[in-house]
């Protein structure tokens, strides 16, 4: 996955609590495990006026003009500002894939559902938990500025508003390390590739029949 770097991005408001994963990406889109291609169906039931499915061309569906992510500049947002318990519901990892495929890099909320929170870090999405008061302030500022942007600095663990106010946030050090270095589970494993190869060489030297496929173990 890509390394997480400091960036300034447009913020889109998702001003409702308890946004569940079925709303983020409905169940009919869970057949694919490619991690890409889910962006056009992010918040599908809210985003379109017509029913959708994997076999339906979104180009022929009527778009809901009142849904925030259909409105510029929010249709290009990289930061989602949400309310409490974001990502509740089922454990589908596709919810994180859909947000990232749309272009969202950060979700800011007072709280997150645990499984969504963990899935986010495993895929390079940064969930930032700020206090309810701070989130309320951000919503107020966003409401007064349609092109509201925030700067997110993961190294320094802070969110900076256009007015210069800095909002620190907490993050587990290991999760921070993974995001800063762009390491998913596979990337972490590959950091030990030399040791893995050494183990395999020594292991097959002790038990060569395991590498020979159909050859029988001596003495069997």
Q: How does the SSE layout of this entry go?
A:
Elements: E1 7-14, H1 21-24, H2 44-47, E2 79-82, H3 94-102, E3 106-109, H4 114-123, E4 126-129, H5 132-143, E5 149-153, E6 158-160, E7 166-168, H6 173-181, H7 185-190, H8 193-206
Describe this protein's structure.
This protein has helices at residues 21-24, 44-47, 94-102, 114-123, 132-143, 173-181, 185-190, 193-206; strands spanning 7-14, 79-82, 106-109, 126-129, 149-153, 158-160, 166-168. By secondary structure, the protein is of the alpha/beta class. The protein has two domains: 7-183, Aconitase, domain 4 (Alpha-Beta Barrel), CATH 3.20.19.10; 184-220, no CATH class. Strands 4-3-2-1-5-6-7 form a seven-stranded mixed sheet. It is globular, with a radius of gyration of 22 Å. The N and C termini lie far apart (46 Å). Mean pLDDT is 91; it is low at 214-220.
Question: Over the alpha carbons, how many angstroms does the gyration radius reach?
Answer: 22 Å
Q: Could you give me the name of the CATH homologous superfamily of the largest domain?
A: Aconitase, domain 4
Q: Which oligomeric form is depicted?
A: single chain
Order of helical and strand elements: EHHEHEHEHEEEHHH
CATH architecture classification name of the largest domain: Alpha-Beta Barrel
Q: What is the domain total for the residues? A: 2
């Amino acid at each position: 996955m890509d390394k997480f770097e400091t960036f300034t991005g447009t913020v889109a408001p998702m001003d409702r609590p308890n946004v569940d994963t079925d709303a983020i990406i409905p169940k009919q889109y869970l057949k694919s495990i490619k991690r890409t291609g889910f962006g056009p169906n992010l918040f599908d039931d809210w985003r379109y006026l017509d029913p959708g499915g994997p076999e339906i061309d979104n180009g022929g569906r009527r778009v809901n003009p009142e849904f925030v992510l259909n409105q510029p500049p929010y249709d290009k947002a990289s930061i989602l500002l949400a309310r409490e318990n974001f990502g509740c519901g089922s454990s589908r990892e596709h919810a994180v894939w859909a947000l990232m495929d749309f272009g969202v890099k950060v979700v800011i909320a007072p709280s997150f559902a645990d499984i969504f929170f963990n899935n986010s870090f495993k895929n390079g999405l940064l969930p930032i938990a700020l206090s309810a008061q701070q989130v309320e302030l951000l919503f107020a500022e966003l409401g007064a500025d349609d092109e509201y942007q925030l700067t997110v600095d993961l190294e320094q663990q802070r969110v900076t508003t256009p007015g210069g106010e800095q909002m620190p946030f907490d993050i587990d050090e290991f999760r921070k390390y993974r995001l800063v270095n762009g390491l998913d589970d596979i990337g972490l494993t590959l950091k030990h590739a030399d040791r893995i190869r050494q183990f395999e060489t020594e292991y097959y030297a002790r038990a060569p029949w395991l590498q020979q496929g159909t050859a029988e173990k001596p003495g069997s």
